[in-house]
Amino acid sequence: MKLLIVEDEYSLRHSMIEFLTSSSYLCESCSNYQDALEKIELYDYDCIILDIMLPGGSGLDLLKNLKQNNKTDGIIIISAKGELGDKINGIEMGADDYLAKPFHLSELAVRVAAIIRRKKFQGKSNLIIGNISIDIQGKRVTIENKELDLTQKEYQLLIYLAINKNRVLSKNAIAQHLWGDDMDFPDNYDFIYAHIKNLRKKIVAAGSEDCIRSIYGEGYKMQIA
Amino acid sequence: MKLFTKYNRINITATIIIFLAGSVAFYFVLDYVLIRQLDASLRSEKQEITEYIQLHQQLPEIQNTKEQWIQITKASQPISNSITKTIPAYNKSENEREYIRQLIFMVTVNKENYLVAVNKSETETDELLKLIIPLTLSMVALILLFNYLINRRLITSIWQPFYNTINNIKDYAANQQSLTLSKEPIDEINLLNESLNKMTEQIHKDFYALRSFTENASHEMQTPLAIIRTKVESLYQLAEGKEIMMQQLLSIEDACLKLSKLHQSLLLLTKLENKQFILNELIQLKSILEQKCEERTELLESKHIKLQIDAANFEIHFHQHLAEILISNLLNNAIRYTAIGGTISISLYQKQLIVSNTGTTGSLDLDKVFTRFYKASDTGTGLGLSIIKEICTSAGFSISYVYEKNMHHFIIGFQA
């Protein structure tokens, strides 16, 4: 899977490259409009992560260029202007998703994975983590042909953990992924713990090993050898 | 009051007063002049009689007419000066009372004293005066009418450009293009238009400068925050086995989150104050309310909060995004300040939305409750309620807070 990361901020670009590379994506990057334009004209990517405000031009113009050339690269806009207008603009112009800065890298990973799945496999691929098999299109989870009966939130949580496997995810990141960011969370995240506990129980009951680990109750990790 | 009405009122009052005063003065002057004329003719009559007597030493033969008659009587005692006076009399032929002007003087014929009274009727004078009153009144009415017609014509045509200008600026909002009012032949209005053009151009520029400043400031601030957050996320991977590090990283992440929320809230408040939202979408508050409550199910369960919703289905002119923020903030606020095991009840009707929750702290400070950064506890940004208030203000809703029977009630009236 080849990704292009277009972001002018050095630190942020490198964090993204580091994170996504460790999720076994092949990452290319550039930091300005001109370079980005050359790259998207020359190569095809599975997904392009696009900042809007770039030195030398707007990310939205790159988006326009892609659409005019009938490119099918998946596009996710990351913008600091958390403006509703920008979001609508971006989506209307053909972006697949929009993520406002600041965001969690794990959230970005989930969105990128979703776009690639949709674009590349028409949503038909199964996500296989250890002996857990997730049929994204049918929203079914099976462990050794035994189907798991998961709630909506548990299902979302499982996918989130699975895509970010072997990675520590903070309570904040999980809460934001599951409930969005217009909620405000109490200091204790007991209700997240409850979901994790239920998910673990169901996985274990289906005969799989307990692969979700709690990191001092501050974060969680799905450990797959 | 309209300019024209005001002008007319003053104009008509002044005209009436001037004409009335003028008519009264005119009446008296005319009366005086006519009486003097009568007196002069009486004196010339006296002159004739005196001259006749001096010449012939006998009384003249008297020829009375309807307008003038002379009575001669023997004087019982002599008078030195002649007397002029107005006396009432009865006119038999006309069968009415009238006033006559009388001049009485003494003549001596053959050493006998006679009193001669020369009478003249004042009827003609009176009639003349009586004619003047309706004449003046009709003159006043005529002048007023013409004045009114001319003024109306004149004022509407002269002031038309002024009214055009007013109509143009009436609906002017800072976020629209600057005005381009036309050039007018009248200097004052031209000056007004030019000043308004310049002013709105400046307002427009300032508005956009401020707007792009807030947007850019937001951008510049979110990027470093994004960097901190992604770095923290990378560090989590190294924190396994180090509990303190994990906790500290979580605190950094929390602070980051709070900072970016704070910033978003301030940006939203600025936009609300700048009236950057157009509130013309038809919104179903009920579905938003249900969705937002649904999102918070787990949160409510974790605090064992009982939620009662009583909502009517109706549409309202509002803004989708703002409606979501409004409801979210009300819910967040209620959930935050409800103790474990408490109750939140929401009633939504065409008239108003009431969000009530059981409170443990007693009444909030009524003066400060909607003030920025006012917090009843140490959680939250302290901007939630001021955002609610600003949204209500810009949508023309009323918002109030009451504490009653251990419940906090936030009441939003849609028809403020």
Could you characterize the architecture of this molecule?
The complex is a heterodimer of chains A (225) and B (416). By secondary structure, chain A is of the alpha/beta class. Chain A has 2 domains: 2-121, Rossmann fold (3-Layer(aba) Sandwich); 126-222, Winged helix-like DNA-binding domain superfamily/Winged helix DNA-binding domain (Arc Repressor Mutant, subunit A, Orthogonal Bundle). Chain A is 43% helix and 24% strand. Chain A contains 8 helices and 14 strands. In chain A, the strands form 4 sheets. In chain A, strands 2-1-3-6-7 form a 5-stranded parallel sheet, sandwiched between helices. A 4-stranded antiparallel sheet of chain A has the order 8-9-10-11, with helices on one face. A 3-stranded antiparallel sheet of chain A has the order 12-14-13. In chain A, helix 2 (33-42) runs parallel beside helix 3 (59-68). Chain B has 416 residues and is α+β, with helices and mostly antiparallel strands. Chains A and B meet through helix 1, strand 12, helix 7 and helix 8 of A and helix 3, helix 4, helix 6 and helix 7 of B.
